[in-house]
Every structure is written in C-alpha cells, then in structure tokens.
Amino acid sequence: MQLHEVVDVVTAEEPPMTRTADDIVAAGRRAERRRRAGFASAGVAGLVVVAVAGAFTLPTLGAERGTTAAPAPAGATTTGSTEARWPQAEPFSFTFRGYDAGTLHVQNPIVTSTGYQIASVYSDGHTSNDRPVTAEEIEAGGDSVEQKKRAAGGKPTLWAYLTVYRPGVFDPAGIRNAQKVTVAGHRAVQANLPVGLDPGKPIAAGNKLFAWEYAPDAWAAVTSVSSDPATPSFQDLGGLVGGLKPSRPTPALLPFRVGYLPNGYRPLQTGTHAMPGLSGIAAARAGDHGGATFTRPAAPTSGLTAPYDAVEGGIKDGFHIFVTPSGSSNQSPEPGVTKCHPGPDRQVPGGDAAGGGFCNVWSADGTVVVQVSGVGLGNRLPLTELERIARGITVADVRDESTWTPAAQALRP
C-alpha cells in the first residue's frame, strides 16, 4: 500500500468501500477496519493466520492504551538557549520524550529505524483517527459521517507525526517548493504537501511539512495532514521547536525475537507497542504489540526527505513482521495453526509463490497473531522462506516488558 492510501484512510470522513488482502496487512486500513467492525470478524479472501514453533500463550493488550516507549529520561544538558547537547545513540533507540507545545501534543516515540524515530502528534482542536472506536461509540450510532462529527465534537481531523532524524540523514534541500525560515534561532524550512502526500497530486493547503535543524546537521520534521486548511498553521508547527529536548538514549524494545533470516536482509525499522514505520503511526492507539521491517539491500541513511515508507522506491525488497492481538485480524482465531498464502504479484522460479505472500501464526490460545508479510514491498522471497521466518519467531509475554528484548538483539538470529 502506498502512503497516500494510508493517509486517505486515517483522515477520511467516510470509510473505504472495499477490503483486499493488501488492506489487511496495511496499518491505516487495519485501524479503520477495526473501527468499522468493532472488532468483529469478517471473512476476506487471502487472509489466514498461523502458529509459531514453540507455541506461546499471551493475553491481549487493551485497545485504548496510550502510546509508550522509553522510560523517564535523564535531564537534558543544554549548551545555549537554542541548542541542546544530543548524545550519540545506536540505531533503534529513543532519544527524546513526548512534550506539549500550545495546543499540540507530541507523544512518546514508538517507531525507530536506522535513520530516525517517529512520534504521533495530537491537537486539542482536532480528532485523530488512529484508534478503534469504543463499544459506547458504536452503540451511539456506528460510524456514519454525522456520528463521527458528533463524536469528535465537530472538530476537523488531523494525522500528524514528528520524525527526528539522525545526523546527516535528512536533506532539507530536497523538499519541493520549500520556504527557508528561522525559528527560535534554528534554521528551518516549510512547505505545503500534495493531496494524500502523493507526489502526483496537486498541493493541499491542509497538508504541511515543517522541518528544523535541532542540532548540527540533524533535522526534525513534523508532517501535518488536516481537514482544516488553516490549522494547525506553520506558526503552530513552529512552536514544536523549543520543546524538543534530548533524553537518555533508551533501546526500543520488541516483544519477539527472530530465529531465522534469509541472506542479505537487514532490519530497517521497528514499532514498539505498534506496527513498524508509518503503519504504526497510522494505528498508534490500536493496541498492537510490536513489529519490524527488513530490507535488501540496506536502505540509504542520507538524502531522506520523509520516512522510508513515504519515499518512492524507499523499500525495494523487504518484508514486515507484525505481532498483534487477535482482534487486529479480520478472521476468527485459529489457535496453534500456521498458514501461508501466496501473493498476487508474481511467481518466482521453482513454483513457489512470492511477491507479496504472507504467513500468519496464531498463539496456542489464539490471543496473539504473528504475521510475516511481503505485501506491497517488492518482496522476492518464495513463500517457503516467509514461512521459515514466521516459524522461527519467538514471542515474549506481551503484557510484561521485562521479558522484551532490545531491538538490536531481537532482530538478529
């Protein structure tokens, strides 16, 4: 699924009309499907689920959990009023905490990668479509357009996230039609973005990017997709500059470990209490447990103007690992079962289906599902390899982070 499709889902007033196998493994549509169905199961061609070798018994997390990531930070050391001393940190680490800036509220980061970390941004004046509706909301009138407006108090919708890039990764010169500004003593750029963040679409006044240099050659960027063209304004987004401070580096934790990886595939990004990448941001409050994305070859760590999911050709050959509650699936649980489905894209030599295939694994009690998916990632692995990856994954107690593993270790066999 392309980024503009995820954007369409998380900002839409009305839900999409159809569901495909690609939708099932994509974050934004997964969240919207849960909103529409109220966690009810529904049969969709192509989705099956499976069980990991060494069955695990894990309860589900609550869907209304707030986003969490790193523990409480140590105090930041500043070198001046506009520059903070940011510590060196390994990839897949959290180095800042959530903070408030006027009506905007940056959450704790939940996504890491080799080049950045990402946190959701909420607004007092907007509603964000990144969580399932509650039973009370469903009883109040389903998900009609009018009911959504009532539930939101008449607020416009907003999908926004803050990406904090590692030094040398972000290239502000690559932002189209960017205006150079200075905010709180920091170099910055701002630009309006196209509809659905799709480069082929016209510019939308409600879609904004504001990026600033928070440390030498290190940039942070907030992306804002609002149904109200006026809010948040660039001035509102610029208010985030002063609140971004370093915290003690803390490794991202994952509720699983890989046991097998095909040659050449390397970890790219993770999600803690979320799916990896922008999929995790699109469903940040959906109660998912964790995930990771692997690519071949390794993705570039310079010249980026957006997260890897949003860059054309940013992921050329890869696969996702998702660890989610059974409520995230649109099928009834099949405890202890392992099943794989071929992808729709192509057949590879030897007769094994690949190019978007996926394998799902149910826990022994049916409460947790592990999915290894190449859908939409140009994946060229045969289905037998995806199954081998899935069967090699060991899942921890999703309720107890003391049993989780730092990503740098969890993503190596």
The outline comes out as globular
Top-tier CATH class of the largest domain? Alpha Beta
**Portion in strands:** 25-35%
* Low-pLDDT runs: 12-82, 346-354
Give me the secondary-structure category: alpha+beta
**Helix segment count?**
9
Write structural notes for this entry.
- The protein is of the alpha+beta class and 413 residues long.
- The protein folds into 2 domains: 3-64 and 251-410, MucB/RseB, C-terminal domain (Phosphorylase Kinase, domain 1, 2-Layer Sandwich), CATH 3.30.200; 93-250.
- It has 9 helices and 23 strands.
- The chain has helices spanning 3-11, 21-24, 27-37, 135-139, 145-151, 234-238, 277-282, 383-391, 407-410, and strands at residues 93-96, 99-101, 104-106, 111-113, 116-123, 158-165, 179-183, 186-194, 203-215, 218-226, 246-251, 253-254, 256-257, 266-272, 290-295, 318-325, 338-341, 346-347, 353-354, 358-362, 368-373, 394-395, 405-406.
- The strands form 5 sheets. It has a 15-stranded antiparallel sheet that branches. It has a two-stranded antiparallel ribbon with strand order 1-11. It has a two-stranded antiparallel sheet with strand order 12-23.
- Strand 2 and strand 3 form a beta hairpin.
- Helix 1 runs parallel beside helix 3 (27-37).
- The longest helix has 11 residues, at 27-37.
- It is globular and about 55 Å long.
- Mean pLDDT is 78; it is low at 12-82 and 346-354.
